[in-house]
Each structure stands twice: as C-alpha cells, then as structure tokens.
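Hi everyone, sorry if this is the wrong subforum. Our group has a chain we'd like a structural model of before ordering constructs, and none of us has done structure prediction before. Sequence below.
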Amino acid sequence: MGAAAAFLPALETALADLPPDRAGIRLHGNKALAALLAPDVLGTAAATCLGPGAKPVRAILFDKSERANWALGWHQDRTVAVAARADVPGFGPWSVKAGIIHVEPPFSLIERMLTIRVHLDSVDADNAPLLVAPGSHRFGRIAERDIDAAVTRCGTAACLAERGDLWIYATSILHASAASAKIGHRRVLQVDYSADSLPAPLAWRGLV
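Answer:
Right subforum, don't worry. Here is the predicted structure as tokens:
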C-alpha cells in the first residue's frame, strides 16, 4: 500500500465531469486520466511487478453513497474489456457492460494481471472496505461452488485506507464488499493493468 496523495487534485480534475451518484462508471476516452495512470506515474507499481510493457487496460470509478449503496459477494474478476468482438479460441463467453464489450479470456491471462485501487476518500471499517481472501490468487480459476471453502481456508482481510492510499493486488484474488454503513461518499478508482497483448484480431479497449 502506497500513497497517491500528490496526484489527487489532478485525478479529481480528470474525473470532475462524471455524473454523480452512479454506483460504478467504466472509464474510457479520458486522456487526462490515462496519462495519470501511465506506468511512469500512478502505474509505477504495475510496471515494477509486470515489467515495462504494463499498461492500464480498464478503469472503473466506484462511489458508494446514500443514493448508490450495494454489497458484493465473494468472486473473482474474470473478464477483460476489448475493442471489438472476434472469435478466438479460449475467449468466451461475451458480455456488454455499460456499452463496453467484455470477454472471459483464458484464466492464465487474468493471473498475470495486477489491480490498483486509488482511494479518493478514506475507508474505515464502516465505509465498505474491500475484503480480500489472502492467497486465493494462487488457486487458479475457482468454481462458484468452491468459493466459500476457499475463503474459509484463506481467511479474510479488510483493505482499510486513508485518502490518497493505494491498494495493489493480484486481479485474480477472491474479493467482496459490504454495503456502506456511513452517509457520505466512498470513491475508489480501480485500474487493471496487463503486460500482455491479446491474440489478433482481439485488442484491449484501453482507456483512450
């Protein structure tokens, strides 16, 4: 966990025009944000872990508030955002989320990815911290029926944070969150990084 406090004003400026009180906004076409998330800026940790080819491939702003509050059960992130649909062996099923095409790739690709969460607000135990099952990223793709057992085996940890903190974890880790018990905002910018290229003709949707 590191600090991104120096970048917060620029991040908030880049995100200022987004509609308020939306549970989650998938971000695309924001050049200012893409520049801030580059491997030599906020993506430094990703480049360190994944190599110089690391790049941000998906970003979502989550904002839990009085108008948009939700709980999320234990799960693994299994899809990636792509520019267009193309039939490639090992990729599927397909879905569309907020107008963006997603596909489930071979899980080995997910296992090579890294996720960074940038906290724009403080997150304490009452403000819906991310919950993770430490070590669960080593189990590969976990069948739905086996998730509860994996969480029991690994235990859970709450990712508490101050404004400006970063949490960095393997994209394949089991994670969950409760609804917030506080009135206010819990803004978190979640960014997935990968150093892989997708097999042609597939291409990452990316941030720009």
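For your construct planning: The first helix runs from residue 8 to 14. The chain is about 15% helix and 25% strand.
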